[in-house]
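Forum: Protein Structure Q&A
Topic: Joint prediction for protein chains with partners

I've read a bunch of threads here and the consensus seems to be that you should model interacting components together rather than docking separate models afterwards. I'd like to see that in practice. Below is the full input, 568 residues plus whatever partners are listed. Could one of the regulars post the assembled result?
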Amino acid sequence: MLFHSILFYVFAAIMFGAALGVVFSRNPVHSVMLLVLTFFNAAVLWLMAEAEFLAIVLVLVYVGAVMVLFLFVVMMLDVNVEAAKRGLTRYAPFGIAIALLMVVELMQLIWLRSQVGDTVGGFVPNPEGYSNTKALGSVLYTEHVYAFEIAAVILLLAIIAAITLTMRKRPGLKVQNIAKQVGVRAKDRIRVVKMDAEKKS
Amino acid sequence: MADFFAGLVPGFVWDIWNSLPPLVQYLTVTVWKILFLTIGVILIVAFSTYFERKVIGSMQARVGPNRVGPLGLLQPFADVIKLLIKEVIVPSQSSKFLFVVAPLLSLTPALATWAVIPLNNWYVIADINAGLLYVLALTSVGVYGVILAGWATNSKYALLGAMRSAAQIVAYEIAMGFALVGVLMASGSLNLGAIVEAQSGGFSQWFLLPLLPLFVVYWISGVAETNRAPFDVAEGESEIVAGFHVEYSGVAFAVFFLAEYANMVLISTLTAIFFLGGWASPFEGWTFLNDISWLAWLTVGGLPWLFAKMCLFMYTFFWLRATFPRYRYDQIMRLGWKVFIPVTIVWIAVEGAMAWFHIGPWSGLSA
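Posted by a regular:
Agreed with the consensus. Here's the joint model:
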């Protein structure tokens, strides 16, 4: 158990440091990479709490997809570091207020849990052969199927909205007709002419 | 696994081993497994460069490397030594830390994914339940090496290559993930060992035929994910010199090279596991083979079968490279988003409907 605690504090410390780095780093690309590190450590902490599915999905979705797009956008931007620094001091009060609110919420949750179950015994390890993914899937598609479907529809709506916002017809835009390009045969473009050899005069 | 080693070592060694505490036993076994697997993968990578040059050579009516060692077999080692003694040049305006870290970021996921891959019925480093998700998660992390290399170099060619590669990898990852959903539905498990077990019983039980569209999508997406020809626009020598690794030299370039080939080996092995029954023998259940003494080994599954299937796909990689011209960039995007993703979604729906109505090989699934 001591080993477990040491690991927890090591990963938590790295995560904390990386999260601070995200805010204070001067370079936006470094910030994004530190955020990736934060997510990785969060995933490790979840693994230690035996939430394998959530941990792997965190890496898959956030590290593998969302942060790649972030990096993509940040690399394209020509960010003025000085302007960003001015923003930091201006938005700091809001940030602190939100952080405090989240701390209060977490404390409430912990307090609620302490009222319901025992906190002294700690966390009971899952039995051998217990599959986190299976357990999650079997409630997600039965008990919570409506919530799940509604969430899916909302996400779909967001995708369609994003595409509609960026799809505007510009005048004079040249677009290829792929089907036509693929359908081209040699005889449409070249004509083979048979002719006799000419005599040198 | 225990009975495999029991015959190999003398009894007293076995007694000492059994007296060790379980944690020590576990750590020793795991470290040795990791060591053997990593060395194996690196050796396969080394010889696949030789294999590639020989295959492409023969397709282009050349002999390929034949100077270093018998038949040129020591060529990979000569190449590695040459790369190791070259100087690593770091461009002056680059982001130095990320420039050095980028090759490692592309190599680490390529090697770490091997942790969940079963080589035979006992050789797997981490036999976890969510193995397939782990594979998806780690293969999606590999793109960071490419993007960071392109950005840290501070060169427009490298950045262009990184952008192309990132867009391509993100696009094809979705099709790959969907193709794996089909495998997951057919096998009923996320554990790679269980996926192989679900395909046991010979060639007819493999997912290759029932999931043929998904197999084609997965394999082509795999070629695109590894940035190999005909999808190698990330490197596109003819227009952006060498893409994301244009400024890399010496060991740093060697690490990128290693990562690319390790990824190819990985994709080949994964395709073999998901669609060709992994380490299972194609002749399993052909009982008449057992009566012929010199053919009986054909029905036994194991690492040689996985290796053979992997080699088949590696050969296909090289074959594709020697055959096809490079895709145009907009056509790559069109193929990924407008062809592969709809194909996989339709086939998943077909598979679901067939499982529901108890038709075909998935009839036992709906339980």
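The mean pLDDT of chain B is 83.
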